[in-house]
Amino acid sequence: MEPTDIEPRPATRRPGPPRPGTVVRAVAVGLCTAAVTLGVSHLGAAVVDPAADPVLAVGAASIDLAPQPLKAFAIRTFGTNDKIVLLGGVYTVLVLAAVALGAAALRRRRFGLVGLVAFTGVGAVAVLSRPTATAVDVLPVLAGAGAGVVAMLLVVRAARTVTSAATGRPRLLNRRQFLATAGGTAVGAAAVTTAGQAIARSRPVGAESRASVSLPPPVRPAPPLPATVSVGVDGMPPFVTPNRDFYRVDTALIVPQVDLTDWRLTLDGAVDRPRTWRYEDLLARGLVERDITLNCVSNEVGGPYIGTARWTGIPLAPLLREAGLRPGQNQLVSRSVEGMTIGTPLEAILDGRDALLAVGMNGEPLPLDHGFPLRMLVPGLYGYVGACKWLTSMTVTTFDAFDPYWVQRGWAPDAPVKTASRIDTPKPFAQRPAGPVMIAGVAWAQRRGITAVEVQVDDGPWQQARLADGPSPDLWRQWTYRWDATPGSHTLRVRATDATGATQTAQRVPPFPDGATGWHSVTVTIT
Amino acid sequence: MNRRLFAAAGVIALLGLSACGGSDTDDTASGGTTAPTMSATAPSASPSMMSAQFGPGCAAVPTDPANPGSFDAMAKVPVATAASGNPVLSTLVTAVKKANLVDSLNGAQGVTVFAPTNDAFAKIPKADLDKVLADDATLEKVLTYHVVPTQLSPDTLAGTHKTLQGGDVTVTGSDMSFTVDGTSMVVCGNVSTANATVYIVDAVLMPKS
Fold first, then answer.
1. What is the DSSP letter of B83?
2. Per the record, where are the segments of Basic and acidic residues compositional bias (chain A) (predicted)?
3. H or E stretch including A290?
């Protein structure tokens, strides 16, 4: 910001851009305009539909449009998507665009108006491109654009300059008016944004809807789980994962808030009788209850993205058969309310396994994070091919005809769960006294079931672990091994064998494109 | 002139405040339960603010978030996986694999890792390096000497810390300039991964015992 002249002030400064005054004015005009536009849009969206917020819509659209070079990034983020980083990026671009807009508006008001139309146009397109968008959803952006025009004209007017007789440089005609207008506009923008947030907080339609749901008791309840499914060793996770601890991996920028009065589930594509259900229609079919272990393809060897829950839901296969499946189809494409697509092999749904449309999780309606009002569950498949959350439509088609979201990004179209095992205790780098040490963990091979788990200490022989009960092949299985630990540093390894007799491969592959393999190891120190 | 700038800065700050407020709602909507790897830092801070990396070596880190070696990508995966995405840490990754420490490092919660660059390993005479790489027990000692079982921020970095190997590392310096055990400079510090904070250093640390 300092002039390059060597003479002390107030020597003459060279005319011509960039002058600090011009920059400050462009920043003030641009940011005031953007803040008012976004603030009013945000307030409007809070009233109409929180998902119609243009910033969120642009963020969601930029995830979906991520081009080929970003594929690696998408792969990395599969498990952990840090949505706030993305929103931060959207805001950064917004600020830069706003300053450019301000500079344009100062030059010619017409340029500013054109820029603002482009600026809000991007938001409008993003809002309308959402699969559940209605024409009403564009109103918040339009209201924001209108307010933005007023704000821009006001601040541009207040930022008029005259050429100073003393310095020959332009200076603000009325500094007080400029500061008051810019400050007032900013305060106004902050006020409408805050109001929008207050409304959005007070109206979580999904939470309200969920609170109003009372699931009927299952017509086919699951038998109680015997206590013998747990090994009862300290450091082990509970056999049934509490909802709050159940992993969450998805791409939703904000958790979708589904209002049950508007929500429908449709079945279309290559079926003789396409159908649409309301929530009550589905509940009226009668609920079944099943204990199922679900895991994420992006889990590293030994990773945390796995959990087991007692799910209640509607069997999926009969719904498809009743609709009259046409021959030659092999894929069911599920779509969530925010536009995620997941493709499941029809064969897996129809082969007799407990493929469900789940509405309940561990005795309560599906939590918002886990897909309220309804998610799909197909035991034996990784979530990204079988467990669409916030489900709203299902389309019978072929793998040739449609690539769902993750397949477009290079992941495998069909992904049965690979046999895997994990040491949960002792933890990595734990220090234990010499003597008996309980090694314990979980192993899983949904659909096949686990028949053996072996433990290896350093390069010693593989030893049989003791297996806890495994009531269903679709459930993980706990195991223990009592180790007489000797002083020193030791590496513990685990491997599992499934009911087909196949033992886990030692070969390490990363999660991309169809799930990690390799024996999990933990290094501990015995003193 | 200065007053005008100051006032304009105030206006900008106010606008910034309202923008930050917008992302607050999103934090409360999804932050608490999103990814298990999400750090539970103050929700009002922007991600770049809560994980500001520092040091001359940071310039060598790819900035394209699509690159697995970038800070953005490293922050989302556990530390050994993060390191394997970064080409300047490939020798370290080879050593970690050799010592069977990949899973343990990925599974350790809340640790600090001093990560020597390839150049750091190149400073060791080849014969000596090969000897260390060939001996798993020694290698494990050297590598676990680079791991502190608590998460050290730049504010808590200076001082003496017990390592997983058992010996102590001593970090001197302050602000953005730190030296580990007197000779190893932090060239890029405070790099976040899903389960560990990483300080990239320019010399391999050697346990005293």
1. H
2. 1-10
3. strand A288-295
End-to-end CA distance of chain A: 62
**CA-based nearest residue to A373, from A313, A418, A431:** A313
Residue pLDDT, tens place only, B141-194: 999 999 999 999 999 999 999 999 999 999 999 988 999 999 999 999 999 999
Q: Where are the beta strands (DSSP E) in B74-157?
A: 111-116, 147-148
Cis status of the peptide bond prior to B87, with omega within 30 of 0: no
* Full strand arrangement of the beta sheet holding A435-444: A420-425, A435-444, A477-485, A466-467
The domain over range A227-408 is classified in CATH as 3.40.50.2000? no
Of B18, B37, B107, which is closest to A80 when you measure between CB atoms?
Answer: B37
CA A115 – CA A133 distance, rounded (Å): 25
Q: How many whole angstroms separate alpha carbon B189 and alpha carbon B154?
A: 8
The architecture of the domain spanning B48-201 is Roll (2.30)
Instruction: Collect all residues of chain B within an 8 Å Cβ-Cβ radius of residue A186.
Output: 11, 14-15, 18
* Interchain pair A194, B30: CB under 8 A: no
Element of type H or E holding B157:
helix B154-157
Domain boundary assignment for chain A: 20-203, 227-408, 420-526
Report the candidate in A102, A272, A77 with the shortest Cα–Cα distance to residue B11.
A102
10-residue averages of pLDDT along chain A (527 residues): 43 49 87 93 85 81 65 49 68 89 90 91 88 81 93 89 73 84 92 87 81 92 97 96 93 87 93 95 96 96 96 98 97 95 98 98 95 98 97 97 95 97 97 97 98 97 98 98 96 98 96 96 95
Which residue does chain A place closest to B24, by CA atoms? A197
Which of A181, A197, A300 best probes binding to B when mutated, by most B CB atoms within 10 angstroms?
A300
Which residues have C-beta within 8 Å of that of residue A276, sequence separation ≥ 6?
A: A264, A265, A266, A267
ipTM value for the complex: 0.75
Nearest CA in chain A to B1: A21
Rounded to the nearest angstrom, the minimum Cα separation between B45 and chain A is 10
Tell me how close the Cα of A521 comes to any Cα of chain B, in angstroms.
Answer: 6
| Nearest alpha carbon to residue B113 among B102, B124, B100, B126 | B102
Task: Name which CATH class applies to A420-526.
Answer: mainly beta
User: Could you tell me whether strands A356-361 and A341-345 are parallel, antiparallel, or unpaired per DSSP bridges?
Assistant: unpaired
**Residue of chain B whose alpha carbon sits nearest to that of A199:** B25
Chain A CA closest to residue B84: A510
How many angstroms separate the CA atoms of A189 and A324, rounded?
55
Separation in Å, CA of A329 to nearest CA in chain B:
35
**So where are chain B's domains?**
1-34, 48-201
Subunit contact B26:A186, Cβ cutoff 8 A: no
Contacts of A296 (CB under 8 A, 6+ apart): A78, A79, A247, A249, A305, A306, A382, A383, A384
Nearest Cβ partner of B103 from A28, A197, A522?
A522
CA distance readout (Å), B96 to A221, A352, B164, B190, B205: 48, 45, 14, 20, 15
Closest C-alpha among A323, A333, A319 to residue A399: A333
**Cα(B106)–Cα(B42) distance, rounded to whole angstroms?**
24
Pairing of strands B111-116, B196-201: parallel
**How many other C-beta atoms can be found within 10 angstroms of the C-beta atom of residue A77?**
26
